[in-house]
Amino acid sequence: MIKVTYVAPDGTATTLEAEPGSSVMQTAVANDLDGIVGECGGAMMCATCHCYVDPAWQDRTGARSSDEEEMLEGAATEVTEASRLSCQIRLDPALDGLVVHLPEEQH
Ligand code: FES
Predict the structure, then answer these.
(1) What residues does the 2Fe-2S ferredoxin-type domain cover (predicted)?
(2) Ligand 1, closest atom to CA 86?
(3) Which ligand 1 atom sits nearest the alpha carbon of residue 47?
(4) How many other C-beta atoms can be found within 10 angstroms of the C-beta atom of residue 69?
(5) How far is the CA of 38 from the centre of ligand 1 (A)?
């Protein structure tokens, strides 16, 4: 199992176990985690799965695609260099221990 930690804006950290091949968004939604909505189901059509990858993990999660970049323009909160659509981060054992930070809001 791969562990992913989601840190809420108030600092509350929730660690979830993810299936290999699932996304950071799917793992959050499957566990009813507040802070990730994932309205479009991962089709890169909504930006309600916005998250900020912890600086220690940014090299390993890779760069966002230009389509992802475009969709992030519609995100409800500030987009920074750490911003990703969490539906576009696929989990594999190399990402075990990943930490992402959740934005204040998704709508
Ligand atoms: S779930 Fe809609 S863009 Fe990620």
Answers:
(1) 2-106
(2) 4
(3) 3
(4) 13
(5) 5
Q: CB of 79 within 8 A of CB of 73?
A: yes
Mean pLDDT of the chain: 97
Retrieve residue 29's tokens. 């939604």
Find out whether the beta carbon of 68 lies less than 6 Å from any atom of ligand 1.
Answer: no
Output the pLDDT for position 107. 85
CB 13 within 8 A of CB 6: yes
Here the tokens at position 81 are 């260099």
Domain residues for the domain of 8 are 2-101
Q: Does residue 74 lie within any of the structural domains?
A: yes
Q: How many domains does the chain have?
A: 1
Q: How far, in Å, CA of 65 to CA of 15, rounded?
A: 27
pLDDT in tens, 48-71: 999 999 999 999 999 999 999 999
Q: Ligand 1 atom closest to Cα of 46?
A: 2
